[in-house]
Amino acid sequence: AQAILAPVDSQHPPTLAPSKPHAHVVEMYTRFVEPGRLALITYGPCAGKMCTIVDIVDQKRVVVDGPEGVTGVCRHMMPVKRLSLTDFKATISRGAREKSLRLALEKDGIMQKWSATSWAKKVTAKEVRAK
């Protein structure tokens, strides 16, 4: 992990830059598209509802599920760009059934944690104002 520095003039050959032994690595993203990630649907017939990513189809599409009894979103495929990812993640395996998803959301208390955030409060206030 050493970089070659360009020579200042023709008399001095290029030298190796000292590597940084204690370089601090900063993680750029923390909200990854992964099974169990709670997301807000931003566009389409289910806009404004919460869903959970269940499976990844390809680079741009995922399978999401509410579950329908909890959030009103049935299992369907949608593009990632129509989702806003949250910080919350349930511990489920890829392609989990609706029952295991519902149990994982209840066990981790994901929906209660979500409703306590300021983002969720803003969404509900916006819905109340619209009505």
Descriptive keywords:
4 helices; SH3 type barrels; 5-stranded antiparallel sheet; alpha+beta; 131 residues; single chain
Work out the helix count.
4
Helical content class: 25-40%
**Hey, roughly how much beta strand do the residues contain?**
15-25%
CATH third-level topology: SH3 type barrels
Under CATH at level 1, the class stands as Mainly Beta
Radius of gyration, in Å, reads 22 Å
What number of structural domains do the residues give? 1
Helix- and strand-based class? alpha+beta
Question: Which ranges are low-confidence, i.e. pLDDT below 50, for 5 or more consecutive residues?
Answer: none
Biggest sheet overview = 5 strands, antiparallel
Widest sheet: strand ordering: 4-3-2-1-5
GO molecular function: RNA binding; structural constituent of ribosome
Subcellular location: Plastid, Chloroplast
Pfam families: Ribosomal_L14e
Protein name: Large ribosomal subunit protein eL14 domain-containing protein
